[in-house]
Amino acid sequence: MKYLFVHQNFPGQYLHIIRHLIAQPGNEVAFISEPNKNNIPGVRRLNYQVKETRKESTHPTIRDLNLAMIRAEAVGRMGRTLKGLGFTPDIIIGHHGWGELLNLVDVFPGVPVLGYFEFYYATAGTDVGFDAEFPTSEDQFPRIRAMNAVNLMALALNQHGQSPTIWQRSLYPDWAQRQIHLLPEGVPLDICKPDAAVRGQPLTIGPFTVAPKDKLITYVARNLEPYRGFHVMMRALPEILRARPDAKVVMLGGDEVSYGARLANSMWREHMQRELAGQYDSSRVMMPGQVPYDVHVALLKRSDAHVYLTYPFVLSWSLREALACGCAIIGADVDPVREFIAEGKTGLLTPCLDPKRLADRLLEVLEDRKLAAGLGRRARAFAEANLDLGDYIANYEALIARITGRALVAPRTAPRLMRARKPKAA
Questions:
Q1: Could you give the angle at the alpha carbon of 273 between the alpha carbons of 267 and 276, nearest 5°?
Q2: Is 260 in a helix, a strand, or coil?
Q3: Domain of 213: which CATH number?
Q4: Band (407; pLDDT cuts 50, 70, 90)
Q5: Is there a domain that residue 406 lies in?
Q6: Shared domain check, 164 and 120
Q7: What does DSSP say about strands 203-205 and 208-210: parallel, antiparallel, or unpaired?
Q8: What is the domain count for the chain?
Q9: What pTM does this model have?
Q10: Domain match, 203 and 169 both
């Protein structure tokens, strides 16, 4: 079969399925994206570039839509180039968030599209207005509603969609959910797995060393920012470090802003360090930025307590990886997290915006070894039952087969409606 993938940041969500497809005889994979240094051998890449337009020339509420239509036009041109080279896909798979797929139905009429529906924006009930520290003014509501223009245009294509969690799919209107398939995502359980041996060895990241006797607290986000509870984690540090002189903290994440509020003259890391200057022992806290994947996994395997905070928003892959590594997780008590963490079973839940409660829950895990061990075992059992990468790939192929009408590999298991639940005793 011939597959065309589209995502402005190659390979996006498609790394694992693409690696699987190109390993199968007879498959051809092309990928349209903006240029970057990433590479997967065997994938034919076509790059497009977007010319920035003057923001002041476009009404604020439709700037996102304007850029999306520019992207759609550029990707359409790349699609025509690909077609002119003799490549007509059997299926087009891509992310709807940036508008890139919108014109491909005209370039390749009759070819089915499987689009990733990640988030449906709302002015209440999800991320907007969740954190009173960063209020959203009412005059921003039209812009927020208009951010769904691409979502709605994509749904009007009357094609096929996918979402990775029950909660994310539930955000879409009832009529739209009928064309969005639930496709839970997986992680490599053979890589992300518990390893008791790491606790008996020092773990070193640059100048920072975690000794076997230390209690390691981990926190992971793409970027250190309020949407992922960074400000809350920082404000919990003074109490945690006072109570546990043996505790060290490693917080992974970059200094950009992926979502939400930006600071005019600073990064959030620097901002919070200034706010809390002198209130905690900074020599016991390391923020190394974004690290290689093997370092990220090694930290999760060594973690004594892992913190995952988020507004009600798209879930991070790091939570799935922490579950697979058997971490004792303290997670934000919000809908997307509750789909993976059941209180007292696969982790503990804490109000996302309460530093005092977060500190209490962290100390609870650090001080009760039996509790921590049980949470870790059940987290791993949940991952084995719900997050296996092999199941994800097989279910992905089964969905492609349904859409294209072509028989592929039979799924190892039927797609599940995943909910956090108590797994079998481990």
A1: 140
A2: coil
A3: 3.40.50.2000
A4: low
A5: no
A6: yes
A7: antiparallel
A8: 2
A9: 0.92
A10: no
DSSP code of 118?
A: -
Residue 333 token pair: 């008590």
Beta-carbon contacts of 344 under 8 Å, excluding residues fewer than 6 positions away, are: none
Can you spell out the DSSP letters for 185-246?
A: --B-TTTS---GGGGGS-EEETTEEE-TTSEEEEEEEEE-SGGGTHHHHHHHHHHHHHH-TT
* pLDDT tens per residue, range 306-338: 999 999 999 999 999 999 999 999 999 999 999
Name residue 236's amino acid. Answer: A
pLDDT band at 261 (very low <50, low <70, confident <90, very high): confident
Last residue of a domain, one of 183, 217, 252: 183
Q: What is the pLDDT of residue 412?
A: 43
Whether residues 201 and 341 fall in one domain: yes
Tell me, yes or no, whether 78 and 219 share the same domain: no
175 & 289 share domain: no
With 0-12 / 13-18 / 19 or more C-beta atoms within 10 angstroms meaning exposed / middle / buried, residue 58 is middle
Tell me, what's the pLDDT at 54?
A: 72
- Cis omega (within 30 of 0) for bond into 11: yes
The token pair at 15 is 């790394």
User: How far apart, in Å, are the Cα atoms of 335 and each of 63, 168, 182, 331, 338?
Assistant: 30, 10, 16, 11, 5
Which tens digit of pLDDT belongs to each residue from 116-129? 999 999 999 999 99
Sorted by sequence, the CB contacts under 8 Å of residue 311 that are 6+ apart come out as 126, 127, 130, 131, 226, 227, 228, 229, 260, 332, 334, 352
Range of the domain at 312: 196-386
Residue 235: its pLDDT value, please?
A: 98
